[in-house]
Amino acid sequence: MSRALVADVLLPLLVGGELHVGRPWTRSRLAASRREVAEGLATGRPRLPREVEALRRFIAERQLRARALFGDVVAQTVVAADASSPELDEDSWRLGAAVHNLLALSHPAWAGKRLIAGWQAQVISESLALAEVGPPATLLAAVRRHLLLASLPEVGRQDATVRYWLGQRSFVGQSPPARLLSWPRLRRVEVETQRKSWLREVGVPPAARAVILALATASPLDETGEPLRLDPPFCWARVLHVLKFHSLARWVSRRLLAPGFERAMPGLADALLRFALVQEPDAPTAATPEAVAFAVRFLAHLAWLDLLFRPEPHVTSSPSLTTAPGEGPPPSGAAPGPPAPTFALEALLVAAAVERPTLLWPPDIRPHSPEAAPMHAQIAAWQFRLAAATMDSSSQALATWAAAHSVVRSLPEAPATPALPAL
Amino acid sequence: MLSRVVVGQTRFTLPGLAVDAKGIARGREVVVRFAGLDRLVAFLRFFTANHNLDDLGQVRLLQARREGGPREIVLLATRVAPVLSEVVAQAARMAGSPVFTGGARHFVPMREAAAPFGWDADAVENDAADLLFYRIDAVDPYRVEGEMALSSLLLRLEPQRTAGAESRSDLLYVLARRGVASALAGYLHRAELGPPGAAGFRAYGAFCRVEGADRAPNLSGGGREWLFLRLENVPARMHDLLTRTPGFRAAAPVGAAPNLVVAVGYRHPVHLDACRGVLPADRFFFFPPPPEGVWVVDPIPTLAPLADIVRLEMPMSGVAATTALRPAETAWPELAVNVQLVPSEREDGRVVGVLVPRRSLPWLRRLVYALPSMALRRLRVALLAESVLILADNELEALPFGTLLASPRPGVLVPVGMCLRPAVSPRVLAERFGLSEGSVLVFPGAGDKPFLVPGSAIHPLEARVLLDPELPPLTTFEPLPAPVRSDVEVVNDPVGPLTMPLWGGLTRG
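The joint structure predicted for all components is written out below.
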């Protein structure tokens, strides 16, 4: 078992490089390692000097990335917290160990071995216990966890296959030994390497999906960069936990609109309708009327941002009778678009405009002021699109409208002063 | 009074109803009843967003009234295609107005969710009304009181201000009063000749009669007092000038309609490019900002290149300003004459300087921000007591105010259009006025004494335009290098052949 979690796992997750996977970490081993590192920091004579040095670099690099990603204000929070304690926070230890264990599930030393059948369930159970740190309670926790786990979609593995005159050998995440590559012409050695994305191509066993969900719950900022991802899908129950921090909410707004309004918003609206209707009992955030109302206001906020700050002219006055939103070819080089139009966005915001206008209109914009004209035009376009879609019996627009209308009618009005629901 | 049409039904009680290819009962005419003008406008806006009004065939707007009821507007369209009648119905429902179909003054409601194949009447009503609208439980007789032209309605609607940033159009139409027309034409003609940023800019114009312009509150005087301009590839820097200067009205074309323009920053409540067939094509309709109504240019003038219209003339020609200046010493008092400024009959020298009075310095300060770096480097300035003298090496451009000065002789500046008499040689003039290398002798104009600006008082403009900077104390967070990130590569370390994954590591209890 590797004894250097920070040097082998946490630091590569943060800055890139080789992430070494060994025996899975357990809570007891993790506690022992933390004690040794803490003693080394306190006494100045560490038993694990490489680990202590890596920890200091990890903290410095985390401050650097917090500043580059979130700006000075958020970075000052991280720097102030790091200055108060030289040790690494517990969340980073536990989440890093959980990620390491997930990677270890595909280690060739154990994967598929019958002799140790059943070990997988134990590792998953232990990993789940490590990853279940809950939603971030503070801005500091949200930022720290995101900086650690943001690179998970980029984690990859080099697999090599060596063919020679007597056969072939495969090396999963390992380099072939030099002796196997010697005398290449005589032994007719051919090496074929392939890089696989861990999350998309290697994956984890179905039983480990709970650990992936626990990591997503622990760091909701990660999924705001991928509002269109399929698994696990975008979940408002997780993301609402970070939207209560204003500085992070602005940052999230920019990330959510990055793929483009027409591409990102329908998926977000679908997820919001699902969040309000399904009422999952074990969701990180209960779908209370206040929470759903806040999510609708955030959705309207994104629509306002797009209306006011979109660089090209916004086409709102020509609703199409024949083309539904989402149809047409996606832009070249972009991620695959949303599957079929569900009209959840139109239904939710039109219902809000009709039933709960305070959820749609910001407090500083009066509905009859000139600044409100673009939104009026947008709502009219949505209404027209919705009405045209309801005439088509094959469309789900009518059912979507009924669901959105019932959801919005159950929501409270927005408070006069901007306030956030208790999450 | 109404019954639902069933599948396969081909015979109807109401005259004029027939089945279409889908088995839906439709009449020859589609009728929409509007409770007010606002709903009619809303309908037109929704419909013209995607369809041309000409597709509806013959459209009539009738003013009709039910016995004891308010006056309503009835839109009657004949020979409407079945597909288009559905569009009309949707737009009418969006506008909150009922829609009917039928013919020969009998009309039943258009098909709806309750009757997917349409409606038919149980019996034909024999009322003498002009229009009969059948309902489930009654028949509404309407009497037609008049008819209004759709074109007059479109021309009476006022443009609405568009929100957000104004979209800039490359093609602009400008109407300018005759009082400012010559100045505007001269400016545009100079811009056409090729200043920076005006590539492809072309202007055409004609003087014309504008009907309705006398309604403008601050633009009195109609008739043939207007210069009609068509500007192509308008540079961005001209937009504000053309759209915000009093005396001009700038408008952008509506879609592909060649004779419909709406003021920049406004839009018509109805998509006008879909109503081209309704408005006469031999007139030019100009929709200025409300409440000025619509301006009509009739007939559409034949436009000529601006170079054929603009009047070229020398500045200050015809001004008989003279001044007498006496040098300090004259050797022969009985032969001495005064140096005079007299109007010049020909252009004498290039414009190389300008004398900007103190009251115009705010303009100069604003202009400095717009000057290109090359101009800032080449211009020189002398700060005088009551004015600022700006000099250029070769030729002065882009300073439209102040007294323009030409240089008929090296080191001597006179107002453009004037010359010095007697025409003594430069050497004599330099001797008499003490003109040295680098200094400039300026004759500011009639009634003003000349003055000599020494070369030491002339500085580059860029060295004089900046205030002393007041730099706030810089607070740096911490100098950190830019983060560098590389791919995360999983490396599976060797763990030995018989190692159990969690050997001895599980937490017991």
